[in-house]
Amino acid sequence: MPAEQLDRPYPMPTAPQASLKAPRLAAASEKLQQALAELERAVEQLNSGGGKSEALAAQLHDVEQDRARLAEALDAASGRSDRLEKARAEVSVRLERAIGALQQALGGE
After folding, report:
1. Quick one: pLDDT at residue 103?
2. How far apart are CA 42 and CA 64, in angstroms?
3. Does the model's pTM come out above 0.70?
4. Are 38 and 28 in contact (CB under 8 A)?
5. In degrees rounded to 5, what are phi and psi of residue 2?
6. What is the helix (H) or strand (E) element at residue 91, kind and residue range?
7. Fewer CB within a 10 Å sphere, N or C end of the chain?
8. Structural contact between residues 5 and 11, judged by C-beta atoms closer than 8 angstroms
9. Amino acid 48: pLDDT
């Protein structure tokens, strides 16, 4: 084995072997270039999407604040509704008593 091949882990291919591998090497190189181009596009999309994710995060924050505000308003409205229902029931009872008292006073219907 020649001295220059001792430094390499694999012996250098001979001219016929190299010519057979050249098309496969070219195809592999092309695939590698395509993969690198796709990777670059993906990185660019991720980098450009950073502004979108910040905008989405801001929108989410706004929606959460709106939801909290609406929940408070709903709780307040529910409390008011409960108080009104109790007042309605109390007025109804009082009206029934008043009607009964009037009926007795007018002749006992």
Report:
1. 92
2. 31
3. no
4. no
5. -65, 155
6. helix 15-106
7. N
8. yes
9. 76
What whole-number distance in Å separates Cα of residue 18 and Cα of residue 77? 83
Amino acid identity for residue 23 in this structure: P
**Residue 107 DSSP label:** T
* pLDDT value of residue 1: 47
Which of 43, 40, 47 is closest to 32 using CA atoms? Answer: 40
Which two tokens mark 28? 């592999």
Per-residue pLDDT reduced to its tens digit, 16-60: 555 666 788 888 888 988 988 889 888 887 777 666 778 888 898
Q: Do residues 80 and 86 lie in contact, with contact meaning Cβ atoms separated by under 8 Å?
A: no
Strand blocks (E) in 13-75: none
